[in-house]
Design a protein that fits this description.
With 78 residues, the protein is α+β, with helices and mostly antiparallel strands. Helices cover 60% and strands 13% of the residues. The protein has helices at 12-28, 48-77; strands at 3-7, 31-35.
Amino acid sequence: MSNILVPIDFVQASSSALRYSLHFAEALGKEIILLHVIYPEFEMLDLPVVSLQTTRGKIEVARENMQQLVDQSLMQIQ
C-alpha cells in the first residue's frame, strides 16, 4: 500500500473516516489522497458555457468544503 484513498461526500461519516485515516496514515507512514466526485452539470437545452460555469461553481464549493473538513479534522486530532 503506497497511499490511502479517502472518499469524501461531506457527511458526518466522511469526517470520521478522515480522522481515522489520518491516524492510520501516520502509523504506517503513508500519504492520504482525498476524493470527492462532482458530476458535470448538463441539461439538454443548456449552452456548453452555462454548463461549464455551473460545474466550475460546484467544484469551487467542494474545494472550500474540503478545506474546512481537513482543517476541522486536523484541529480535532491535535
